[in-house]
C-alpha cells in the first residue's frame, strides 16, 4: 500500500512551488520511516484533509477548530490506515455529522507539509511536529444537518470561497493553503 502511495505521489503534478517542495519531503518520509502512518512518529506523520465543497463548487464547509482557535478545513490523522481517501471521508463524517459525502475524485487534490506547534490534547502534551498532509476534494450537500464534534470543533458552517479564506485566523493557511485550494477549485 505504501508503495502505491509513493507511486501516486511521484505521478502527482504539483500546482506550485510549495507543492513541488512538499512532495519531495512527503515521498522521502514515506521511503525512510516505517511508522509514518502513526502518531507515534513524534517528528512527522501522515494526515489527510478534505476541501468539502457543495455541488456548485461555490461554497466550502469549514469547522471552528478548538486547538487552533480558527476556522479550518476538516481532516485528521491516518492512525495506521493507508486508505487515505477513506480516512478523509471518515474524518468529514465524524467532524461534521454529515452522512452523505462523496469524493469528487479519488486522486489527491492537494498536498502540503504543515507545522504543528506543541499543544495540550486530552490533558497530555503533544510536541511540535509535522503533518505530511494529503488533501482530497469532497462533495456534500448544504441541506444536510451539521453536527459539531465537541472535542474537536465548536462551530460548522458553509462559506463562500472568499469568505472561507477570510474566516481563518491563520495567515499562512489563508495565504498559502486555502487560497491555493480555491484557485485549484476554479480550474477544476
TrEMBL record:
InterPro entries to which the protein is assigned, alphabetical: NUDIX_hydrolase-like_dom_sf, NUDIX_hydrolase_dom
Nudix hydrolase domain location: 43-184
Molecular function terms from GO: hydrolase activity
Keywords: Hydrolase
Entry keyword annotation includes Hydrolase: yes
Family per similarity comment: Belongs to the Nudix hydrolase family.
PANTHER family according to UniProt: ADP-RIBOSE PYROPHOSPHATASE (PTHR43736), DIHYDRONEOPTERIN TRIPHOSPHATE DIPHOSPHATASE (PTHR43736:SF1)
Protein name (Swiss-Prot/TrEMBL): NUDIX hydrolase
Native organism taxonomy: Bacteria, Bacillati, Bacillota, Bacilli, Lactobacillales
Amino acid at each position: 500500500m505504501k508503495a502505491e502511495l509513493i507511486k501516486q505521489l511521484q505521478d502527482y503534478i504539483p500546482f506550485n512551488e510549495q507543492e513541488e517542495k512538499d512532495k519531495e519531503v512527503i515521498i522521502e518520509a514515506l521511503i525512510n520511516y516505517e511508522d509514518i502512518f502513526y502518531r507515534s512518529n513524534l517528528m512527522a506523520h501522515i494526515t489527510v484533509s478534505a476541501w468539502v465543497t457543495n455541488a456548485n463548487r461555490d461554497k466550502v464547509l469549514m469547522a471552528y477548530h478548538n486547538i487552533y482557535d480558527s476556522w479550518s478545513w476538516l481532516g485528521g490523522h491516518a492512525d495506521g490506515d493507508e486508505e487515505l481517501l477513506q480516512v478523509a471521508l471518515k474524518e468529514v463524517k465524524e467532524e461534521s455529522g454529515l452522512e452523505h459525502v462523496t469524493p469528487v475524485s479519488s486522486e489527491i487534490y492537494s498536498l502540503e507539509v504543515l507545522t504543528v506547534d506543541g499543544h495540550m490534547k486530552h490533558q497530555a502534551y503533544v510536541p511540535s511536529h509535522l503533518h505530511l498532509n494529503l488533501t482530497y476534494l469532497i462533495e456534500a450537500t448544504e441541506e444536510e444537518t451539521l453536527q459539531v464534534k465537541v472535542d474537536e470543533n465548536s462551530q460548522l458552517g458553509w462559506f463562500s470561497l472568499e469568505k472561507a479564506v477570510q474566516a481563518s485566523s491563520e495567515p499562512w493557511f489563508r495565504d498559502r493553503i486555502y487560497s491555493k485550494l480555491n484557485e485549484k477549485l476554479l480550474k477544476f
